[in-house]
Amino acid sequence: MWHQKTGAERDFFNRVVDEYNASNADHYVDPLYKENEEGRNLFIIASVGGQGPDLIFGPADNVSIFALTESIQPVTNVLEPGYLETFSERGTVTWRDETWLVADQIGNHLTFVYNKALLPEPPTTVSEMISVLDSITADLDGDGRTDQYGLTWNYSEPFFFVPFLTAYGGGLMDEDGKPTLNTEATISAIRLILEMRDTYKVIPASTDYDTAETLFKEGRSAAIINGPWAWAGYSQVGIDYGLARIPMIEETGRWAAPYISAKGYSVNVNLDQSKVPYARRVLEYLTGPDMQRRMANELATIPVIESVIADSVLMSSELLQASLRQVEVGIPMPTAPQLRQIWDGMRGPYQLIMNGAVSPEEGAQMMQEEVEKRIADTFL
């Protein structure tokens, strides 16, 4: 099985897989981590060649590409009839009238995470956020370099840019799957991030995912924008953290809205029939109510089985409630296969903007043109 779980979620996953293997002598689950982009591409290559892992775990936006390339089969080919009836509508991913993914959680969403020791109350608007973060950002040892930031996150990656794009009323694509990147909303959102970096200097001058994680975990940033896969790891290093909505843009009256999606398991089209009973047992173990209850309790993930959702004690958790408030203003991630070309086509021009090589206006046009070319080249 390939998966893209990281941090505390990966630790949890490895532990429950070990528990499963210890209690099942007739078969064995062998988990292997693959970064999402790498895992998706290698899985397609392997599956088309008649190989690859029996199961793959990932986000909903992989599904249409997997199905289009005939790399996966409907999960209903493996699961018992009626099993999915216990799931909420958001607990499975359907494309072209077939169900391709069974989820262990809904969300995959970015949230404003704050260190209560440095930031007791989270800001609600961007202007308030900048003001508060400015008071926290500091050169603590007088060497002329910033030692503590108000905020950090992987802002150079398009996925982490989306909440600010949507806050200005923009999006990545329209209902027909056509890219919508060369817009004033895109330009305004980019300008905001550049202002936070270059004018107000409340975020690092450059960063990536691991650097942002390190700054927050070491107490050198009061806040980070990150998703549920990372949250439990902050407790593990002793940070008393809270979750809040990513702040609102006052001029539009819109909350920063991250994409939300199911994350779960799909079945390789090449799964040998002799393995189907084992794959069924593994899927029911990893997505069943007991597992989703454990995940919600330990990782603050949002369950997708109705009986678990109805557990008022479990769902009253402060972190789960805060996570749900972010989901309330989130936007469902498109499952159209064009989304993959959009992510890949955005990345180069967007990072050129962040590096100062092109202006926001030039970059928005470049993103639009590159994505349109990629979609045309793949006949989507």
Q: Which regions contain 5 or more consecutive residues with pLDDT less than 50?
A: none
* Main CATH class of the largest domain: Alpha Beta
Mean pLDDT: 95
Terminal CA distance: 29 Å
CATH homologous superfamily caption of the largest domain = Periplasmic binding protein-like II
Tell me what portion of residues adopts beta-strand conformation: 15-25%
Work out the helix count: 15
Report on the biggest sheet.
Answer: 6 strands, mixed
The run of helices and strands is EHEHEHEEEEHEHHHEHEEEEHHHHHEHH
Write down the domain tally. 2
Silhouette: globular
CATH topology of the largest domain: D-Maltodextrin-Binding Protein, domain 2
Secondary-structure class? alpha+beta
Summarize the structure.
The protein is α+β, with helices and mostly antiparallel strands and 380 residues long.
Describe the protein in words.
- With 380 residues, this protein is of the alpha+beta class.
- The protein has 2 domains: 2-108 and 259-332, Periplasmic binding protein-like II (D-Maltodextrin-Binding Protein, domain 2, 3-Layer(aba) Sandwich), CATH 3.40.190; 111-257 and 357-367, Periplasmic binding protein-like II (D-Maltodextrin-Binding Protein, domain 2, 3-Layer(aba) Sandwich).
- Helices cover 44% and strands 16% of the residues.
- The strands form 4 sheets. Strands 3, 4, 5, 6, 13 and 14 form a 6-stranded mixed beta sheet that branches. The protein has a 4-stranded mixed beta sheet with strand order 8-9-7-10.
- α1 crosses α8 (228-236).
- The two termini are 29 Å apart.
